[in-house]
Specification:
The structure holds two protein chains of two kinds. By secondary structure, chain A is mostly helical. Chain A has five helices and no strands. Chain A is elongated, with a radius of gyration of 18 Å. Helices cover about 30% and strands about 15% of the residues of chain B. In chain B, helix 4 crosses helix 5 and helix 5 runs antiparallel to helix 8. The longest helix of chain B has 15 residues. The mean pLDDT of chain B is about 95. The chains are: A mainly alpha, B alpha/beta. The interface between A and B is medium-sized, with 30 and 29 residues.
């Protein structure tokens, strides 16, 4: 099944602004869910990583809102920015979370999200007929490419953990 | 279904409580919670017009994480509680949450009769083929060869087939979803809630702690190749012969829901007590 099936239709600049805004807001929500999970499971290092990622995506969302000027980008997003079967492109995969995950894993999730967003906006550049839409999508592609580079740079600080990262001599019995 | 509030645009956040879920990170139930709140927002239902009822188990924690009315009931008895609520308060939208242990084993008999009775409510079973909360015992949907320290060599027992049982017992709407597709699941839940009578939605929801192999489900699920049928015979054939990973609405029946007239029997309780006097 195509995971891009059901992507929102981009007919004009406002549609693209709304979708780009929603992509960031969905990412914020998802990182906060993951941060909450790590808080519950006493993994404070990851709480900070996910909250920082949420904050960064929130700033991107606000930048798009400012770019939209007086146009109510959030309201329009609620109407059109629906992604069918798939998650919104930048949403981290909830199913990949683990209570013992490390910053390296969190950044891998982030990298995958940024790469999906890059591919998504690239596909808009390739298919858009409206030159304004094409131009804004190209800007978004540049930004996402920067984010991909940034995550790669951050990953240099966090080497891949060895295979025993998930070993737990006292695994969870009950979550009570 | 209760009355839609057309004056207000609800957001998912309107249906979330302040309590943070304590499911294991990676658990499919997080996605199911997301699908619940998405579906409620899409329906535009005021939170106070929704009741989320559950039994016991990981999945049954869900009422606490919503901002709707909720009842975390006795193991396996969520359907009985929910049916009682719905017949006395037909104005409420009643959604019941369960798991494969709570719903198909401890509550198996209630499942049959809830389907048969066809009260207008939606039954969501988060099926992970294991008892997760109590450390991974085989459940009614566990594969016979699933080999663990708790079931050495596997149980060798044929798994329960909930969708077939639901159809045979009279459920009026049957669907299967995958937790990893929360948008699609929300869309199915919207249809299930709107459909009159007893709607049964099985959600394949991986247990990453005791069934890490279920992470592979995301590559196995696929949309049902044909649209939902209203013919129970066709539905039976399809459900019996599918691979267990067909996702979507599989059956839409047209049975009239069971709804006794509330307050129709006007009895003075003191008169009734006289009948039982010794």
């Amino acid at each position: 099944m195509s995971k891009t099936a059901g992507n929102p239709k981009i007919s004009n600049l406002n549609d693209l602004l709304a979708v780009a805004y929603q992509v960031e807001i969905d990412a914020v929500d998802r990182y906060n869910v993951l941060a909450d999970q790590m808080e519950t499971h006493n993994n404070p290092e990851l709480v900070k990583v996910f909250r920082d990622l949420a904050r960064a995506e929130g700033i991107h969302g606000e930048e798009i809102r400012r770019l939209a000027g007086d146009f109510d980008v959030a309201a329009h997003a609620r109407d059109i920015a629906k992604f069918g079967r798939a998650d919104s492109p930048e949403e981290a995969d909830l199913g990949a979370a683990h209570y013992l995950m490390t910053p390296w894993h969190a950044l891998q999730l982030s990298l995958a999200g940024e790469e999906r967003a890059l591919a998504y906006f690239t596909s808009i550049v390739e298919t858009a007929k409206d030159p304004k839409v094409k131009a804004l999508a190209a800007e978004l592609v540049e930004e996402e490419a920067e984010h991909v580079s940034l995550v790669h740079r951050l990953l240099r600080r966090y080497p891949k953990p060895d295979d025993s990262w998930a070993d737990d001599l006292d695994p969870p019995v009950s979550q009570e | 279904m209760s009355t839609v509030d057309t004056q207000r645009a609800y957001k998912q956040a309107d249906y979330k409580s302040d309590i943070k879920p304590i499911w294991c990170p990676g658990c499919g139930d997080y996605h199911v919670l997301m699908s619940f709140t998405r579906a409620f927002a899409q329906l535009g239902l005021p939170p106070e017009q929704i009741a989320v009822i559950s039994g016991i188990g990981c999945s049954s924690r869900i009422p606490a994480y919503t901002n709707c009315y909720g009842f975390h009931g006795v193991h396996g008895r969520s359907l009985a509680l929910a049916a009682g609520l719905k017949v006395t308060r037909p104005d409420l939208t009643v959604v019941v949450a369960s798991g494969d242990g709570d719903g198909y084993s401890i509550g198996g008999n209630h499942f049959l009769h809830a389907c048969r009775r066809n009260v207008d409510m939606t039954y969501v079973v988060m099926d992970n083929h294991i008892y997760g909360m109590t450390k991974g015992q085989p459940s009614p949907t566990t594969e016979p060869e699933f080999d663990t320290a708790l079931s050495p060599g596997g149980t060798k027992v044929r798994p329960f087939h909930p969708l077939v049982v639901a159809l045979a017992s009279g459920a009026n709407f049957i669907a299967r979803c995958f937790s990893g597709e929360p948008n699609e699941t929300a869309a199915v839940l919207v249809e299930a809630i709107k459909h009159p009578g007893f709607s049964f939605v099985e959600i394949l929801s991986p247990c990453v702690t005791f069934r890490p192999d279920e992470k592979a489900w995301k590559d196995l699920v696929h949309p049902a190749p044909v649209a939902a049928t209203t013919d129970p015979g066709k539905a039976a054939r399809r459900i019996m012969t599918d691979d267990g990973f067909n996702i979507g609405i599989l059956y839409r029946g047209n049975r009239t829901p069971f709804q006794p007239a509330v307050g129709a029997i006007n009895i003075d309780l003191s008169e009734l007590e006289k009948d039982f006097e010794l």
